[in-house]
Amino acid sequence: MKKFIIALILGFSAMLQAQNKVSGTVTDSSNNPIAGVSIYAAELHKGTTTDAKGKYTLENLPNGSLNLNFVFVGFSNQNKTIKTLQKENTLDIILEETLFQMDEVIVSTAFNKIQSQNVMKVEHEKMEDLQRKGTATLIDGLATIPGVSQVSTGTSIGKPVIRGLSGNRVLVYSQGVRIENQQFGEEHGLGLNDSGIESVEVIKGPASLLYGSDALGGVLYFNPEKFANANTFQANVSQKYFSNTLGSNSSLGLKTSTENWKFLARGSYNTHSDYRISGGDRVTNTRYNETDFKTGIGYNNAKFSTVLRYNYNKLDLGIPEEGIAEQTSSKNTEFPRQGVSNHLLSLNNIVYFGRSKLDVDLGYISNNRKEFEESNDPSLDMVLNTFNYNAKYHLPQFGRFETIFGVQGMHQTNTNSGEEYLIPDATTNDFGAFGMVNYEWKSNAIQAGFRFDSRNINSLAHEAEAHDDHDGHDHEHHGGDFDALNRSFNSFNASLGYKTNLAEPLTMRVNVATGFRAPNLAELTSNGVHHGTNRYEIGNSDLKTEQNLQTDLNLEYNNSHFEFFVNGFYNHINNYIYTSPAGTQIDNNDVFDYVQNNAKLYGGEIGLHLHPHPLDWLHYETSFETVTGKKQDGDYLPLIPANNWNNTIRTEFKIKNWFEEGFAALSVNTTFNQNNVSGFETRSNGYTLVNLGFGGKVKLGKTAFDVNINGNNLFDKSYIAHLSRLKTDGIPNIGRNVVLGINFNL
């Protein structure tokens, strides 16, 4: 029976296999073959590398079109599209030498163009480059991207802020599906670990046309690590040490692939003590521990490609309440603490119909958030289960027109089993339908789209049990009474973008788009004290949908030795939701109401990258970012990041045959005073941080490994970031932190 089943599977697999293949040779401009060039078909999660003669072959390819990306260090990326695959296809490539690697395939937008062809400006950063900066967490790395910052609680908790918008206004995607983990709360983080993530794409502006509600402010789109090349096996182990938190980050990954099947698995563990501020004191109970496991299996043939991925993330977080108190290097969290576990299951499928294709992403996320105040019985225990789907049909290309139609939806339940309630038990249902068209001619492109969305929120009534407070701690909820709620929200949105080359090296992009966000459960139903805020918040069940209109302008100039960019935006938001002091108190806590007002945000980013000839080993990069947020009455919006100016000098070098791809970098990061604050915020002083980085690939015989050494906040500067949630207690951010990282590819 066993032999029969195996024979049946093999026979079915052989029946489905395509005979299509692509082969060719990759050379430089002098016609010399280049060995080790990476060739990758992102849609199929499939790749290979050139041999010593520069030759490559990719087999078992689908019918229809195929996009291939050719990448090699020191040469410009090449992206080629074969419109109609034959059984035998020859594609020879010539790579030009350059030191800029800018043209990446953008996955987060509708048509998966390379950046130079994309109508919308998207920031693409490899996780390896962010990690080289020595940042302790994923959100720390993201905050180094111009236009991105974070609302932080110590070193363990960070929420992304894109151009002044955060929380439910920024959508996070991982493994091709939207992450849902009670992101309305500032007091817990992303719930993602940077191990097993290849790169991140940042859409800075309304992306509701592609992603629906909550993408009003932008999208963070994380691309998971690639599978191994066909017929190879790879193992990887990495270790990092952090001097400030006496922290450790360990990761082990394994992956293998055949022509059709592919598999990977990666486990990681992070542990950190309380972080140390300038001068040597530690901030009590900012310690945390994180366990992360990712795995995936994929299959592709002539007719379809499918990938199933799973991610488990468990966080044990201390919640700082006492400031600088007990001094210890323990990594065991004290009360109050938070335990968050997240299961993410995704199924990504592409079905090919000759000249058209259907792209279907399914996701299931189960998020359990617990808070423990003085015992191991959770006072707060919330489970958020989410099923979402996203189907896009790519019509056959008609002349220069590319067209996509799609539907998206989500079914979500929130249940409470703890003694305290932050938000009531509720069910949320989303449905959206959209269409987009892209038209290209010469170096120009126009992209337009239209979308309709509907969201229904249905919550249950709840009456809190009376209990005495005698422990001296602030509790999550001294209220907890909720009325039943049944609200529906509808929205129509549209976008229009134009990209052109004003001159050979000068590109201009103009985009106008609307976005929307339905009010979340906290804003509609809150009734109690939220942990760490010392505010009694009262929701408003009559809140309207936030609706915005944003205009973006992007100018880019680049040649082989100089790059320059300017991004400007103006964002008008109708019915912007925020908290406002009511002027009364409940249980000795100031009462804050959720209210609405029209608002506007404007600003942008400017930067240049200089690589002077003939100093091929030297790079200078500088960027400046600014955002201003105001209500209609002229008052400033809360939680707007301060202006920031970053300068980096980087050198690249090689030492004989034992040290390759070497780099040394000096960064000077200046954050300016933030005096534009809302009524209940305080001003923040500016500060300058100096960071140093050094690394490369060490070769000792047949053994090779990557090493990074970073010194962040090198001069141990004492500072308080404007968006730090510990600012109200006068607690500074992290002091000097030396990070050592070693990575072995076995």
Describe the protein.
The protein is mainly beta and 746 residues long. It folds into two domains: 2-98, Carboxypeptidase-like, regulatory domain (Immunoglobulin-like); 142-225 and 238-745, Beta Barrel (Maltoporin, Chain A), CATH 2.40.170.20. It is built from five helices and 40 strands. It has a 22-stranded antiparallel beta barrel. A five-stranded mixed beta sheet has the order 9-15-16-13-14. Strands 1, 4, 7 and 8 form a four-stranded mixed beta sheet that branches. Strand 26 and strand 27 form a beta hairpin. The longest helix is centred in the N-terminal third of the chain and has 15 residues, at 2-16. The model is unreliable at 1-18 and 468-478 (pLDDT under 50).
Query: Rg to the nearest angstrom?
Result: 26 Å
Derived from helix and strand composition plus strand pairing, the structural class reads mainly beta
CATH superfamily of the largest domain: TonB-dependent receptor, beta-barrel domain
What CATH calls the topology of the largest domain is Maltoporin, Chain A
Average the pLDDT over all residues and give the rounded result: 87
CATH architecture of the largest domain: Beta Barrel
Number of helices: 5
Percent helix: under 10%
The CATH first-level class of the largest domain comes to: Mainly Beta
Count of individual beta strands: 40
Proportion of residues in extended strands: over 45%
Ends apart, CA distance between termini: 38 Å
| Low confidence ranges | 1-18, 468-478
Largest sheet: 22 strands, antiparallel, barrel
Silhouette: globular
